[in-house]
Design brief:
The complex is a heterodimer of chains A (116) and B (113). Chain A is mainly beta. Helices cover 0% and strands 53% of the residues of chain A. The model of chain A has no long low-confidence stretch (mean pLDDT 91). Chain B is an all-beta fold. In chain B, strands 2, 4, 5, 9, 10 and 11 form a six-stranded mixed sheet that branches. Classes of the chains: A mainly beta (116), B mainly beta (113).
Chain lengths: 116, 113
């Protein structure tokens, strides 16, 4: 089956630093990927839609300059949390669309970000 | 913004019992999907039901969809302790994009051995 790899799975950083999270589709090309944020015991909140070769589309209330998304190739999207602060601590999950499959949306295993 | 809403938010049952979770949504959809998430992990796709389908089965899972009521249910029969997880429904939104998927708040299921 299709696999989406997300890296790193866990990251701890100091306040003020930037953290990059990678999302790769391993056996298919994904022109569209999505980034979600999840707080403990809560649902997934869609942050942005990542489009290959164009700017990401952000959901209302999500800071574009805070959460930089780059989708430079058909198999890789990155989310950079810039100048991270403790309130950015969360679980971030990516997903990629695989056209032609019924399931269509495949998820990475998530990244737990802890900002000290 | 969240589109789907699950009911109940938390459910605790004995092993062997059936578990039923409900989901409601607000807009017109192309399909509705159910996912499972173990604590701190990624999502596992369980089943997809299209808007023109009313019921679908997969192993111990049974999903229904009522587009007139904008609701769906997920039934897990003969539950096992390993079914303990959070379950989310997710819908696309025909008004915005066929691909954009919005998740409900989820139901936390605990199956007691």
């Amino acid at each position: 089956g299709a696999v989406v790899s997300q890296h790193p799975s866990r990251v701890i950083c100091k306040s003020g630093t930037s953290v990059k999270i990678e999302c790769r589709s391993l056996d298919f090309q994904a022109t569209t990927m999505f980034w979600y944020r999840q707080f403990p015991k809560k649902s997934l909140m869609l942050m942005a839609t990542s489009n290959e070769g164009s700017k990401a589309t952000y959901e209302q209330g999500v800071e574009k300059d805070k959460f930089l998304i780059n989708h430079a190739s058909l198999t890789l999207s990155t989310l950079t949390v810039t100048s991270a602060h403790p309130e950015d601590s969360s679980f971030y999950i990516c997903s990629a669309i695989r056209q032609g499959s019924e399931e269509k949306l495949f998820f990475g295993s998530g990244t737990q970000l802890s900002v000290l | 913004s969240q589109q789907g809403e699950e009911d109940p938010q938390a459910l605790s049952i004995q092993e062997g019992e059936n578990a039923t979770m409900n989901c409601s949504y607000k807009t017109s959809i192309n399909n509705l999907q159910w996912y499972r998430q173990n604590s701190g992990r990624g999502l596992v796709h369980l089943i997809l039901i299209r808007s023109n389908e009313r019921e679908k089965h997969s192993g111990r899972l049974r999903v229904t969809l009522d587009t007139s009521k904008k609701s769906s249910s997920l039934l897990i029969t003969a539950s096992r302790a390993a079914d303990t997880a959070s379950y989310f429904c997710a819908t696309d939104d025909l008004k915005t994009s066929y691909d954009k998927v919005i998740f409900g708040p989820g139901t936390s299921l605990s199956v007691i051995p």
